[in-house]
Design a protein that fits this description.
heterodimer; A: about 300 residues; mainly alpha; two-stranded antiparallel ribbon; 13 helices; 2 strands; B: about 280 residues
């Protein structure tokens, strides 16, 4: 990029800034329309009693929606489920993803089957993963119960998706499977950037494989791990597709997430005021998580 | 890495990764080839005894699967083209022009992906409803375009920066205007980047569920994930037919990423690592 100064001078015509604005305008127009304006509308609406079903118009209610949310057991149930799913599936996907990345980083003669095996779960829609695993966990004809029976654990087959605890476990397992391969792809790219010479030097110094893993691989991988964790946490807080396709939030509302509650309130009940308030809480939750991560990154850098 | 490099160990490692990645799709494929009678026989069979394609025929006749396929394709293609155009312009400005605060501009675009989609859903639903745009392609194409802006812009900025500036300068010295140089020199050289960003955008749009379910729920406007999820059999959820429909829905994207896997991996890790 180092061209002669005179050349750069020649390029810097005065119209450059306006050309830049012209080129950036469509992107910012779309962002304003689909991100900024909706967020503003959302916060505004959260102070109103606004239902699209009755045709009764909007009534300013101040902070009443917020107080209702804080007293709403459904909100706390959904928030707890969301947080629990995040706390289980984010570390779960990291561990499984790291395992897959380490395996995939071995010197294979043919790279493509391994790479495709990591790409396929990533490309599969979450909703499809939910449907497929719902079939795996089917009480009567699912392969999970079949394997359990073949391994000799007889007795009554587990009703995976009909019991609160089992349903929750099945959902978490599905999320970990679906998300760990993206994690693995990011970590694999990180692994491939670690210079071999580091391991060779450690070998010379007599470091064991375990020491090499904890002293070289993990620290060198840290930037990739943090990026992957941020992405995964933010998406985990929005978990919707997999519980929706597997259980619709059931049994009861044992597996209902915050995103599902917002969807139900707004789309099914058309209660935009209350739905907006719930969404504000979701927004704050994500903001808090992002802030925590960014602070940690700041401290690391 | 540091694990002993025995040949059998490597093969076992490969087998674990491959089985983990392919097993669900393979199991659904096997299910889709079984007859209803075989499916409900116990103990369940793993390999279909009398493989049949009847489920595929039924998948297309029982529900408007072709229509879902068309809807998914239309929404994904339109939003991909739109995000590529918008992101290319923005990425070129960020990578090439002497703009102040270019890093801040890029951060603003990328940060928009940090907003939870569910929070945007409520106002977007309200707006689309009042504009009468529910159950139209527009309702999905516009949000998907914005959804894909961050990753497309990141990938394209990287590609534009990797094209030597001298090439462009030479073209301008030879009498090209800046836009002429962009069109004749930068665009052809950036084609691989545009293509990579395009695949990522396409897959994202193809996979999206929440907005599609909320904004386009009417039977004729459903995309594949919504159509298949909301499919109701007469009495129970018809798993063999669902499996066939899933295979039909998975194959196009699976072929796409199988053919272009190196680019997809490159784009994903670049978009991910820089974010």
């Amino acid at each position: 990029m180092a061209t002669g100064a005179s050349m750069i001078e020649r390029m810097r015509d005065p119209s450059e800034a306006s050309l830049g604005m012209l080129l950036l305008a469509p992107a910012f127009l779309l962002l304003a329309l689909i991100v900024v304006y909706p967020i503003a509308t959302l916060i505004f609406n959260s102070f109103f009693d606004l239902r699209l079903s009755g045709g009764g118009g909007m009534k300013f209610v101040g902070l009443e929606n917020y107080l209702l949310v804080l007293k709403d057991p459904d909100f706390w149930n959904a928030t707890w489920n969301t947080v629990l799913i995040t706390l289980i599936t984010v570390p779960g996907a990291l561990v499984v993803g790291l395992g897959l990345a380490l395996l995939a980083n071995l010197p294979f003669k043919r790279q493509w089957p391994v790479r495709l095996a990591l790409l396929l779960p990533w490309a599969l829609p979450l909703a499809f993963a939910g449907l497929i695993f719902a079939w795996f966990f089917h009480t009567e004809y699912g392969i999970v119960n079949d394997v359990v029976r073949r391994l000799g654990f007889g007795g009554e087959p587990t009703m995976w998706l009909l019991r609160p605890g089992w349903a929750f476990a099945a959902i978490c397992l599905t999320i970990v499977w679906k998300t760990s391969s993206f994690m693995a792809l990011i970590l694999l790219a990180g692994l491939q950037m670690i210079p071999r010479s580091l391991y060779e030097a450690a070998e010379v110094d007599g470091a064991s494989k375990g020491q090499q893993f904890w002293q070289i691989t993990i620290p060198m991988l840290m930037p990739s791990i943090i990026v992957a964790l941020i992405f995964r946490t933010i998406t985990a807080l929005q978990t919707f597709d997999i519980p929706y396709t597997m259980t619709r939030g059931g049994p009861g509302n044992a597996t209902e997430t915050l995103a599902m509650l917002i969807h139900k309130t707004t789309i099914d009940y058309l209660d935009v005021g209350y739905g907006s308030t719930l969404a504000v809480f979701m927004f704050l939750l994500s903001l808090a998580v992002t802030a925590v991560y960014l602070r940690r990154i700041g401290r690391q850098a | 890495m540091t694990i002993p490099r025995g040949r059998s160990l490597t093969l076992i490692a490969a087998a674990i990764v491959v089985v983990n990645g392919f097993f669900p799709a393979v199991w659904i494929l096997l299910t889709s080839l079984k007859t209803e009678a075989e499916l409900v026989s116990k103990p369940i069979t793993w390999w279909p005894h009398n493989p049949t394609l009847a489920n595929y025929v039924q998948a297309f006749t029982d529900q408007p699967l072709l229509r879902y396929l068309g809807n998914s394709l239309a929404v994904a293609v339109l939003s991909t083209i739109l995000s590529l155009v918008v992101a290319s312009l923005a990425a070129y400005a960020i990578a090439r022009l002497n703009l102040r605060r270019r890093q801040l501009i890029l951060t603003c675009i990328v940060a928009s992906s940090m907003f939870p989609l569910v929070t945007l859903l409520v106002p977007i639903f309200q707006t689309m409803r009042s504009l009468g745009l529910l159950n139209t392609y527009t309702a999905l194409v516009l949000p998907y375009t914005v959804l894909n802006l961050p990753v497309c812009t990141l990938v394209l900025v990287g590609f534009f920066q990797s094209i030597p500036r001298d090439l462009e300068n030479a073209a301008m010295i030879d009498g090209c205007t800046r836009l002429g140089a962009l069109w004749r020199v930068v665009v052809p050289l950036a084609a691989p980047g545009v293509f990579t960003a395009g695949i990522l955008a396409f897959v994202n749009a193809w996979d999206e569920f929440l907005l599609a379910l909320s904004l386009n729920a009417s039977a004729s406007m459903r995309t594949l994930p919504v159509g298949i999820t909301l499919y109701q059999g007469e009495f129970t959820f018809p798993w063999p037919i669902i499996s066939a429909a899933l295979i039909v829905a998975i194959v196009p994207v699976a072929v796409l990423i199988a053919v272009f896997q190196e680019r997809v991996v490159g784009g994903l890790t670049q978009g991910g690592l820089k974010g």
